[in-house]
């Protein structure tokens, strides 16, 4: 069986760190409110030197370095983002150029906070079909550019950054014990558009800001996340007892805890970075994977379950063995 196995992981965070307390100067909010409602303590915001493609390139280079590979060895780049530098070309082709890669192909995937899960499933299909041998999968976002800084219910929740994985085709026995992506599950339901969206875009002739009915999104999150994770785990032929790490989308610690509980997995098996990064949308899962790998939590052979939900609504899960 052709499996997409992880060869390397890396991330990039902009140098500007903003603590919750900084918002107290301009908004009717508090460190205590933000911390207790979301689990967020600080986040990174892009500086004038950072764009989605520059951060994505740095994360991709870090993942290539860890894999001991160069851009020459890569066949495809799949980049999950809702905040590309330009309307077109894709941020992925800009990363391709920045890496000095003149062969292969690159494209963006847009599924908001579920973007990385979608991109992973996409890259997995490229590898399983024989279209590509090695794929860089990136999540990169500059949500600071779509914040309404007068809206305390959203602007304190998001952050910027990028994370990347290098996947490589491996012909292995294809059991749940073998490394690689074991199963994927993707879902969306466009009826929920009004719960989370940007109120502008190219075809409407406006720029727009992120709008969210946070408590409504919350209502959908735990149930849909636990259900998609369970579907993916069933397809993979694994149970909650087999899971070494849940690497969830990092939007809110209460959603992360609620989902883990519903999955029957204790919080000491969950990689949590929301306190330091805030919600970085499509970047949050590869960022958490990279931090979890560097901290020594995620080890070779570990079974990981990722799950994410965001605007659309779009949600999904990927089960993989590192
Ligand atoms: N500081 C102080 N008070 C605030 C703030 C703030 N920053 N923001 C909102 N409040 C107030 C509200 O105005 C409200 O006041 P009221 O009761 O007087 O009307 C009160 O706090 C409670 O507001 P809720 O929205 O009900 O608070 P909740 O406990 O639901 O927490 C939160 C809000 C953190 C947004 C939560 O609902 C959440 O995390 N939702 C999910 C977000 C998410 O997962 N998004 C999906 C991924 S993102 C993507 O796809 C881009």
What strand line-up does the widest sheet have?
A: 1-7-6-4-5
Number of domains: 2
Name of the CATH class of the largest domain: Alpha Beta
Main sheet overview: 5 strands, mixed
Low-confidence runs: none
Q: What does the radius of gyration come to?
A: 18 Å
Q: Estimate percent helicity.
A: 25-40%
Q: What ions, cofactors and ligands are bound? A: acetyl coenzyme *A
What is the element string, with H for helices and E for strands?
Answer: EEHEHEHEHEHEEEEHEHHHEE
Counted by DSSP, the helix tally is 9
Mean pLDDT: 97
Domain Beta-ketoacyl-[acyl-carrier-protein] synthase III N-terminal: 107-190
Protein name: Beta-ketoacyl-[acyl-carrier-protein] synthase III
Enzyme class: transferase
Catalytic activity: malonyl-[ACP] + acetyl-CoA + H(+) = 3-oxobutanoyl-[ACP] + CO2 + CoA
Descriptive notes:
It catalyses: malonyl-[ACP] + acetyl-CoA + H(+) = 3-oxobutanoyl-[ACP] + CO2 + CoA. Keywords: Acyltransferase, Cytoplasm, Fatty acid biosynthesis, Fatty acid metabolism, Lipid biosynthesis, Lipid metabolism, Multifunctional enzyme, Transferase. The active site is at residues 113, 249, 279. This is Beta-ketoacyl-[acyl-carrier-protein] synthase III. Pfam families: ACP_syn_III, ACP_syn_III_C. There is one protein chain. The protein has 322 residues and is α/β, with parallel strands linked by helices. The protein folds into 2 domains: 2-171, Peroxisomal Thiolase, Chain A, domain 1 (3-Layer(aba) Sandwich), CATH 3.40.47; 180-321, Thiolase/Chalcone synthase (Peroxisomal Thiolase, Chain A, domain 1), CATH 3.40.47. Helix content is 31%, strand content 26%. The protein has 9 helices and 13 strands. The protein has helices at residues 31-38, 52-67, 91-98, 115-128, 152-155, 214-236, 253-263, 274-277, 284-294, and strands at residues 2-12, 16-19, 42-45, 76-80, 105-109, 134-142, 160-171, 180-188, 196-198, 210-212, 245-248, 303-310, 314-321. The protein has a 5-stranded mixed beta sheet with strand order 1-7-6-4-5, sandwiched between helices. Helix 3 (91-98) links the parallel strand 4 (76-80) and strand 5 (105-109). Helix 2 (52-67) packs across helix 3 (91-98) and helix 6 packs parallel to helix 7. The protein is globular. The structure holds acetyl coenzyme *A. Acetyl coenzyme *A is lined by residues 29, 33-34, 37-38, 112-113, 152-153, 156, 196, 214-215, 217-218, 221, 251-252, 255, 279, 281, 310-311. Acetyl coenzyme *A (ACO) binds next to helix 1, helix 5 and helix 6.
């Amino acid at each position: 069986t052709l499996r997409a196995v992880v060869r390397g992981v890396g991330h990039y965070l902009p140098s500007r760190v903003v603590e919750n307390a900084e918002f107290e100067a301009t908004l009717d909010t508090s460190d205590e409110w933000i911390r207790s409602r979301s689990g967020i303590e600080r986040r990174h915001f892009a500086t004038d030197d950072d764009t989605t493609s520059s951060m994505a390139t740095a994360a991709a280079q870090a993942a290539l370095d860890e894999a001991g590979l160069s851009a020459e060895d890569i066949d495809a780049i799949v980049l999950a983002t809702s905040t590309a530098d330009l309307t077109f070309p894709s941020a992925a082709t800009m990363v391709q150029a920045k890496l000095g890669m003149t062969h292969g192909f690159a494209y963006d995937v847009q599924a908001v906070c579920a973007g990385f899960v979608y991109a992973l499933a996409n890259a997995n299909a490229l590898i399983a079909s024989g279209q590509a041998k090695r794929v860089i999968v990136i999540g990169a976002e500059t949500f600071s550019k779509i914040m309404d800084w007068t809206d305390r219910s959203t602007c304190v929740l998001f952050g910027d950054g990028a994370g990347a994985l290098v996947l490589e085709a491996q012909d292995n026995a294809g059991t749940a014990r073998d490394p690689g992506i074991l199963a994927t599950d993707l879902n969306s339901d466009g009826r929920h558009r009004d719960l989370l969206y940007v109120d502008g875009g190219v075809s409407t002739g406006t720029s727009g800001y992120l709008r969210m009915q946070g408590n409504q999104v919350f209502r959908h999150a735990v149930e849909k996340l636990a259900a998609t994770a369970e579907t993916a785990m069933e397809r993979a032929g694994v149970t909650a007892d087999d899971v070494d790490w849940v690497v969830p989308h990092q939007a809110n610690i209460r959603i992360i805890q609620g989902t883990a509980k519903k999955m029957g997995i204790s919080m000491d098996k969950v990689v949590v970075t929301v306190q330091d990064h805030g919600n970085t949308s499509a970047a949050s899962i590869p960022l958490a994977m990279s931090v979890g790998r560097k901290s020594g939590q995620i080890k070779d052979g570990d079974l990981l379950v990722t799950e994410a939900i965001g605007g659309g609504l779009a949600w999904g899960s990927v089960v993989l063995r590192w």
